[in-house]
Amino acid sequence: MAKTQLIKVDKKNPDREKIRQAAKVIKNGGLVAFPTETVYGLGANALDENAAKKIYCAKGRPQDNPLIVHVCSIKQLDYLVKEVNQKALLLMEKFWPGPLTIIFDKTDIIPSGTTGGLDTVAIRMPRHPVALSIIEQSGVPIAAPSANISGRPSPVCAQDVLEDMDGRIDLILDSGACTVGVESTVIDLSEDVPMILRPGGLTKEDIESVLGNVRLDPGLQEGQRPKSPGQKYRHYAPKAHMTLIEGPLEFQVKTINELAKNSVKKGLDVGIMATAQTRHLYRFGKVISVGDRNAPLTISSNLFLVLRKFDRMGVSEIFAESISKEGLGLAVMNRLYKAAAYNIIKGT
Ligand code: TXA
Ligand code: MG
């Protein structure tokens, strides 16, 4: 493939000509990386099986991992899904556009190459003006996974997309950093109690405020079988070996200090993922604060950036603090568990 083009697009006021150029690539069966409020997506025409295939190829993504289909209006669902139930309608009206993906039974118009062979399709309406304009201009729903090489931390800025996708895709639209920083929440509404298949940018508490009781897919725990195919793969992984420390904050800091000291003694390059509250408490390694414990959005929006930063610094060991699983913390901890491949030290 020819060189990947990178074009800057104003987030609030996307230039129509640039959007038209991107939409043309999509219509012609090509690949465009574009910003959403969660992470950068790698987009292709969701109705074109060959275009979808190119996504799997560019990412090195397993074929059975279905793609999320992005729309710019609820009306588009008329021809994409068999039925919209009452719960879905309530959620869409309240939270779309936004970081929420809903699973529906698909119609035949969506090729099985887009859904990893499943009869269901995951649909979301992103909140980012650039994402919405490309979907609108291209006139087709856009399949878009996160624009990273499979298994790597998701990209939350255009530079991170370029790092993984240079030479593999046609075009990257650069509108700066994503605000949410973790992917959308994926929800299955087919049973009595709605089930979150992937915690994400819309909190469980927010969904419960509309639907009442909601549960987390029990298969999300280590060693279980998750309902969402993508959740079974190792994911978000930095190059370094990573250990996540859980328990009272004092325990976390003490443990990380001991581990870092030992690793540094062995001559290893150590990275510590700290928080604004604790960063000054570490005496060894390269310390980066991922954000403020009292403002979870600062942490979610920084999480993948920090993991990639440690990679660029060339550290070989990362010790990471954990945070509360309330609100956005649930998605952050889900990503940290996977990034650390469930290598966890728990204290009481
Ligand atoms: O925020 C996001 O959702 C981003 C941006 C670009 O929109 N996209 C994203 O896509 O995270 P991806 O491909 O990285 O993750 C899609 C997740 C996977 O875990 C996949 O298994 C799940 O959605 N998924 C897709 N279709 C599904 C289906 N029909 N049933 C169950 N899970 C599905
Ligand atoms: Mg992904």
Question: What does this entry look like structurally?
Answer:
The protein has 348 residues and is an alpha/beta fold. The chain folds into two domains: 5-220, DHBP synthase (Alpha-Beta Complex), CATH 3.90.870.10; 241-346, Threonylcarbamoyl-AMP synthase, C-terminal domain (Rossmann fold). It is built from ten helices and 16 strands. The chain has helices at residues 16-27, 49-59, 77-80, 86-95, 129-138, 158-165, 204-211, 249-265, 296-313, 329-339; strands at 5-8, 32-34, 41-45, 68-70, 100-105, 120-124, 142-143, 171-174, 185-188, 195-198, 215-216, 241-246, 270-274, 286-289, 317-321, 344-346. The strands form two sheets. Strands 1-8-2-3-7-4-6-5-9-10-11 form an eleven-stranded mixed sheet, sandwiched between helices. Strand 9 (185-188) and strand 10 (195-198) form a beta hairpin. It is globular. It starts with a strand and ends with a strand. The structure holds threonylcarbamoyladenylate (TXA) and magnesium ion (MG).
Give a brief outline of the structure.
Helices cover 31% and strands 19% of the residues.
Please describe the structure with a list of short key phrases separated by commas or semicolons.
binds magnesium ion, DHBP synthase, globular, 10 helices, Rossmann fold, single chain, 348 residues, binds threonylcarbamoyladenylate, 5-stranded parallel sheet, alpha/beta, 11-stranded mixed sheet
The rounded distance between the terminal residues' Cα atoms is 53 Å
Q: State which percent range the strand residues make up.
A: 15-25%
CATH topology of the largest domain: DHBP synthase
Given as residue ranges, the uncertain stretches (5+ residues, pLDDT < 50) are none
The appropriate CATH architecture of the largest domain is Alpha-Beta Complex
Our count of helices gives: 10
For the sheet with most strands, the description reads: 11 strands, mixed
Percentage of residues assigned to helices: 25-40%
Q: In order across it, which strands form the biggest sheet?
A: 1-8-2-3-7-4-6-5-9-10-11
CATH top level of the largest domain is: Alpha Beta
Q: What is the overall pLDDT average? A: 96
Number of strands: 16
How many domains in all?
2
Helical/strand content category: alpha/beta
CA gyration radius, whole angstroms: 20 Å
Hetero compounds:
threonylcarbamoyladenylate, magnesium ion
Series of H and E elements? EHEEHEHHEEHEHEEEHEEHEEHEHE
